[in-house]
Amino acid sequence: MRYFGILVFLVVLLSCDSDPTNRNPFLQEIGFRIDLDLNLPLYSPLTNTGNAVFVGNPGVGLRGVFVINTGFNTFRAFEASCPNIAPSSCSTLELNGQTAICPCNDNEFSLFTGQLLNAPDDGSRFFNLLEYQARFSGNTVSISN
Asked: Cβ distance 107 to 92 under 8 Å?
């Protein structure tokens, strides 16, 4: 009987969800994978730290992906949809150097961190950019979700 109690305790403990992530109600996450060959002219800007590119291939993210070289062979990739509004005709972010700007509401996001840079101080909740996995190997950056 004592072992049964320990077993029940372990099952309850292990079944608890410890992920405190709050889901963005505006963006649906989809599965995809794309490999970016940095030898290709389209992606060669990523060989330099601080450079970012937009990848708008069909099936890559919801509205495409921004990829940035953050230095030391580290890359980050973010969804190109404005994270704080429902999808619309103006909700695709625009690349401006190392920031992405939402044309619907002029929100600016850092591509180094994904954070909203100009959040109003009105107590409203704002979401940062949706980040995808980025892995570097050889001369290829693999982006996936």
From this structure: no
pLDDT of amino acid 124: 84
In the chain, the N- to C-terminal Cα span, in Å, equals: 44
Give the chain's residues under pLDDT 70.
Answer: 1-22
Please give the backbone phi and psi of residue 46, each rounded to the nearest 5 degrees, phi first: -70, -5
Element (H, E) at 110: strand 108-110
**What residue spans of 23-134 are helical by DSSP H?**
none
How far is the CA of 15 from the CAs of 10, 19, 23, 121, in angstroms?
Answer: 8, 12, 20, 38
Quick check: 108 and 116 in contact, CB under 8 A? yes
Contact 69, 51 (CB under 8 A): yes
C-beta neighbour count of 83 within 10 angstroms: 21
